[in-house]
């Protein structure tokens, strides 16, 4: 958008939202038509110049955010939603907030690491264009599985983040899980793989959700052919409640001795902890147990969560004292 066009968008949006002028009046001021003013105002919303937030009259969100921040040593962004909101409505509201926050954090000369999954796909649909320079987006975990390559799905998702930010995109063309840990060790010595792993380690921001083993809306890794029946039995026997970047976690946040993790291609909690900002985006009752496990594993610095899920998380946290990961940002 050229400078003159940007000024028209700014003037129209300012008069409409800040001065409460009608479109006909704005059109006369700008010497244009009402339909053009309507398009300018729409453009202001699409580019993020104008952000519209609905706040319910009665919400626990601010208090819940403070409670979660104090309990887990994170920055918590609790999105207000009605108690009767559907799972889809909760996911959409959280996705919009996460997309807005990400755009405010990510800038030129930065590296963004992105996992794949249903929640991240939703976030990608709400990204407003923000061109940057010298930036990169890197895929955090492999996507191929035993039924399909899975690569087109992950590639499209990761590319949507690159397109939004005008960033170079680095795909990770390996399986989500290798059949044998020895195969993974050999692949990790390949230069093409090491190049992507190095880019992951340089990430300024990691963006991910948590996968849930159970629930009415199963997470992508558990519903799209990534695990066979024997794998599922192992997860059950090991007490696994979910995953972060396809690395499986028990309820207490432990993960090191879960057998399937030796074959997983996503970054471990230890590797994630080396990144300065780790953003976890969550919506849904079935995500409470894996989210609590992720917090106990210390992989989250910033949590974007809907109000209903946050309330359930706070209730669960009261039953035990989770490990503090770091002091909240000031």
What can you see in these coordinates?
Strand 3 (136-139), helix 7 and strand 4 form a beta-alpha-beta unit. Helix 1 packs antiparallel against helix 2, helix 4 crosses helix 14 and helix 13 packs across helix 14. The chain has helices at 3-18, 23-30, 34-46, 61-72, 87-105, 118-124, 151-165, 181-187, 191-201, 220-223, 229-237, 269-272, 288-296, 307-317; strands spanning 75-79, 111-114, 136-139, 168-170, 205-208, 211-212, 240-244, 247-250, 277-282, 302-306. The two termini are 35 Å apart. The strands form 2 sheets. A 7-stranded parallel sheet has the order 1-10-9-5-2-3-4, sandwiched between helices. Helices cover 44% and strands 13% of the residues. The chain is built from 14 helices and 10 strands. It has 330 residues and is α/β, with parallel strands linked by helices.
Q: C-alpha Rg, in Å?
A: 21 Å
List SSEs in N-to-C order: HHHHEHEHEHEHHEEHHEEHEHEH
Query: Residue ranges: pLDDT <50 for 5 or more in a row?
Result: 322-330
Strand pairing plus helix content: what structural class? alpha/beta
Query: For the residues shown, what is the average pLDDT?
Result: 88
Strand percentage lies at 5-15%
| Biggest beta sheet summary | 7 strands, parallel
Helix content: 40-55%
The strand order across the widest sheet is: 1-10-9-5-2-3-4
